């Protein structure tokens, strides 16, 4: 084994085989979904070694398709449904897209991916707060967006300038006004 990542992947495979044996074969997996996940992980490992952006994007979306294909077959049998399962089912594509944008921003210094990555992850955070934690306050939504634009300012102030900071301040002031009123 050449790298630590290969050891981790083999460990995860051994762990999954162990879980399957412990469960006594009561879990039924969608072979197509598992295959898509494995191919996606393979492309993401290829991205780690070759540093090709297309491998990361293709691997993330194949893994996403594999997880969503397997969700219907695996989750009901191990009773992992409810708020978190619904959240993941509804927002997994957005989470994947946001994380891919942020990974390419950090790794390849693609400046144009910072804004959509932060905004998409902010939308997912807002959805998580509303759906899973079940908090429906408009001031909290405005505060989440203020945090997103502040993060955008902190990560990209050298090429974006100060406009994200001004937008964050406006969202923060609106959140305070909503909280007080």
Describe this structure in words.
The protein has 181 residues and is an all-alpha fold. Helices cover 81% and strands 0% of the residues. It is built from seven helices and no strands. The chain is flat. Residues 74-80 have low confidence and may be disordered.
Low-confidence stretches: 74-80
Which word captures the global form? flat
Number of helices: 7
N-to-C terminal Cα separation, in Å? 61 Å
Largest sheet: none
What letter string, H or E per element, gives the SSE order?
Answer: HHHHHHH
Structural class: mainly alpha
Mean pLDDT: 78
Strand content: under 5%
**Helix share, percent:** over 70%
Total strands: the figure is 0
Rg measurement, Å: 20 Å
Short account of what is shown:
With 181 residues, the protein is mostly helical. The chain contains seven helices and no strands.
Topology:
Blueprint: H1 4-22, H2 31-50, H3 53-74, H4 83-108, H5 114-131, H6 138-160, H7 163-180
Helix pairs in contact: 2-3, 3-4, 4-5, 5-6, 6-7
Which structural traits does this protein have?
7 helices, 81% helix, flat, mainly alpha, 181 residues
